[in-house]
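A protein record in our archive is deliberately plain, so that people and models can read it alike. The record that follows is passed on verbatim for readers who wish to inspect the format.
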Amino acid sequence: MTVMSSSSALAHDYAALAADIKRWARELGFADAGIAGIELGEDEQHLQRWLDDGHHGEMDYMARHGTKRSRPAELEPGTLRVISVRMDYIPPGTRNAWAVLEDADAGYVARYALGRDYHKLMRNRLQKLAERIHAQVGDFGYRAYVDSAPVLEKALGRNAGLGWIGKHTVLINRSAGSYFFLGELYTDLPLPVDEAATAHCGTCRRCIDICPTQAIVAPYRLDARRCISYLTIELKGSIPEALRAPMGNRIFGCDDCQLICPWNKFARDAAEPDFAPRHSLDGARLVELFAWSEEEFLRRTEGMAIRRTGYEGWLRNIAVALGNAPDSSEVIDALRSRAAHPSEVVREHVAWALARHQAT
């Protein structure tokens, strides 16, 4: 993302500018925007404890950048404030998530990944927001981020007033639940900061209790090594056998902790049509998805977050789901069709799934 030169404009009414920025953000399709400072000391300590405990698993990039993740001015020198934005992602008409999870012959894809990948879309909107600011104040320093750099986006979103970090470690907005993406505009403008959101989870622990793999090991502590989102997306290679059965039919990500959250009764439909489900992935049949060739996988997932798991990971994940599916000749035939797949990882998971059905 382009970075303009440092601020050279004369003094501005920064309170008025902050109000304009929030209005412009909404006009550009963001559901909300707020402004945070750059002090993240407690969050840095929390991150370091999480890394020390090894809860990041194979996500080495979480530790690779040292303190840049928790010190915005180290990542982007000159940063004084962070403009944090959010965008709702579940469009109207999406098949009911609980219904898909209860249909063991269907593949469950996390609701955020059903349509167009949000990264480029949000970066483009943030760039347009920066251009509007530039038109108002002249040259200023900025950089836009959407999961593209070491950024503590949830902590910044909380400090910008967009929500609090729930016990499942996801940001929750009091009037809009948690089904939204986050993006940031680091800037050298001395804007007034918003009041940080306060927590409202209370004694509720539904997210902890419902987690299929018990990945939320304590309130506000997620062991990614057990998280289905990590297992189906980030983890390369073999999924630990003890965690395969609890995965059920979840083939890309997991939403259980959000689905059960009472605050999501306030969740709002996405206004962005590009987030609409593609290729009926909001409840497609496992045997049909398992039959995709690599060329078909690449073609059908073009511009989608699902690409991230890769074709091998896609087949691995679906093999596990088929192992958890009801016993049928169709399921067994589908698994047998991949029993001699070139990938050792795919073959291993297919063999596990077939053994599950032979045991019934």
Observations:
- Residues 118-137 form the longest helix (20 residues).
- The longest strand covers residues 81-88.
